[in-house]
Amino acid sequence: METEKLKKILESLLFVSETPLSPKKIASFLRDTPESGIQTALADLKGEINGMDRSFQVVEVAEGFQLVTRPEYHKWAKELYKIISKTRLSKASMEALAIIAYKQPVTRAEVEAIRGVEVSNLIQSLLEKKMVRILGRAETPGRPLLYGTTHEFLIHFGLKDLSDLPKVSEIQELAGDKPSPEFLREMEGELRRRESKLGLGTAPDGEAASDAQEPPPAPDIVTETPS
Q1: Which residue, 29, 37, 106, 120, has most beta carbons within 10 Å?
Q2: Which SS3 state, helix, strand or coil, does residue 117 take?
Q3: 22 neighbors 60 (Cβ within 8 angstroms)
Q4: How confident is the model over 4-33, as pLDDT tens digits?
Q5: DSSP assignment, residue 168?
Q6: Is the pTM of this model over 0.85?
Q7: Angle at 66 between CA 63 and CA 69, to 5 degrees
Q8: Domains of the chain with bracketed CATH
Q9: What is the mean pLDDT of the chain?
């Protein structure tokens, strides 16, 4: 397919898609165009659109490409559509999510050992918000559940993949039994800064619904065997 026509097709797909589009997914229905050609055309299109100084841009996120509003114009878009994010995260949730993101696969007990408090309701809340998922069970006594982050997590924080996580200078402390409180704050702060850069709203401290006060999981929800 001729390059300029391909870029226009890709532009139209990005325009209508509500989620990031990967070259592999696009190639699945543009069967006459190889994935490598789509990857190159997307990169070219990204450069062209982002060089236009418009209110929108193409970003690489969650192993795909997406057409989004630039952060400085988010407040007007939100005012128009009165957007209330389902994934607003309290400070406590952000801390637990940061631990899971950097230490995955991780058990609830390991998260609690780092935070120093019980986190069952926080993890349940993150599961419901699709920020984390169950990866399986650990090969340890009681076989506790293992948790990791999701594709939605990558989209929410604007990450291409997990290797794009913000680097924390003290990352090796995760291997210890008692990472410092300063390190926990730094992990949480890195994700919070990433979220703010994208114009996404994190619930301020003390906001109405604290995750720690959420009701326990319903009986039909999978729960852990005590570790």
Answers
A1: 106
A2: coil
A3: no
A4: 999 999 999 999 888 889 999 999 988 888
A5: -
A6: no
A7: 140
A8: 3-81 (1.10.10.10), 91-213 (1.10.10.10)
A9: 76
